[in-house]
Predict the 3D structure of the following.
Amino acid sequence: MKPALRYRWTAGIALFAAVAGIIFLRAPEMVLAPTLLFDEGAKVFSYFYEHRGVAEILRFKSGYVPLIGNLIGYLAVRFPTRAIPYAFVGSAVLIASLTYCLFFLNAFRKWIPSDLERALICILFALAPISDCLLVTMSDYSTWNLLAALILLTLCPPPEQRGWRYLHAFTCNLLVWAHPLTILITPVVLWYSFKNKPHRTFYHVLLFNLVVHQVFGVAGIVTMQGLWEHGGKLHIGFLSQFLHSCLWTVQIIVATAFRTAFGSPLFEWAVRERPSFLFLWMAGVIFGCYLVIRCVSRLRIVLAFLSYLIISITFLSCFLRYEDIHDGPIAFINYSPRYIYLQSLCFLLLFGVLLASVWELGFSFLRTKWDQPMVRKLGSLTFLPLVALLCHYYMLNTQFGHYFVKNTQRASPYYDPDARNGVIVREFFARLAETEQSLGSRKGIQLTAGKINDWPITIDTTVASPPASLRLSHRARGWAIVLGLVALAYCARRFRRTRYPAV
């Protein structure tokens, strides 16, 4: 192995270990005593335990097909019974850790050339207390990390080596089916399909897969007022819904920028006592972006893309979850921080880029006034602002009692609703394993685990579950024919160009 390649693998493995260690040490009980929070136990585990057919991988949940979530559920229930909770939480931690480390890839050197700076940003993703236990220890909500992984991998050009190129293409096309909002990467795919001619086929296939996913994998997401069906839907016109969503988008982006920078406790105080602080901070961030755009040309595309992600994800969340947000957008993000999770990751990257750039620009200006060796040396240490930012977010963790050595309190978004739920779930799976052993099969079992301030887990295999039906409607068959003809025409065109290039 070449030294450069050995360095990349060693550094990547060390970074992954550091990121996974941060996730684990922040709330180790959530990994060592998993509780299968909310949907994970009540709707994912229970469903796949009772419905074990392969066709269940394509089941709809919450208005779309969470293919990777379904695969995790399908495979996890086939682990030894007592190990099933660890399979669920282990997959979530693995997905989060890998996603946070993707920014370390060589492809992002064109924006941030320093490997050390990109590694510090990856650690920043894990260290900043911007999410909760649902997003890092619950596979059902790992769809948000999978969407982040798809965005990052789409920005990476396909590798030159054939094996890695095929793995990259397979992973990207699989991740398309992980989240209903993967359509957000369409502008990037279109741009690269024109710009990157050697890999144009990959981007064409990915674009076709995005269309297929929206047609068959997302059920009415554009017309529904929420991804979940609720009773008593609000009847409101499209224009009114659109305008309200635009207003809430501005409010939520301003709130997310402040919450990401200073943590949720200070954010809640500012909302109550000094709402103007939120807008002042946002104005400062915009001014910093303006300076960087003017002076650092390589970062213009980065800031433009981050702005696109922040605005588009926030607007779609407001538009599609209209019923939940109309009572108060700020209260909604406190209750459901997953809907500002990707935007928070974007702001973390934005803060890191701005600090490193302002440090570099400041010392560049100093060199014009006082060109000394020490000034030049300090100007080259652009990683120091990122180290300071990591220290800042470590202090924000201590507000919740997270010291990563010995945590002092359990009142944190990264813990489950009650400490006793871990014991309850462990005893439930022990009873389930004993029942399976005594009956000699998984049939005829009826068990319930009542958790505290959480949804119960119920297993009932006394009645046979009907097999999943994969029959398409008349309209879906029409779409299938149209898309099939498009794919056939494209393949024929590619074959003709390959076989007869002069024609």
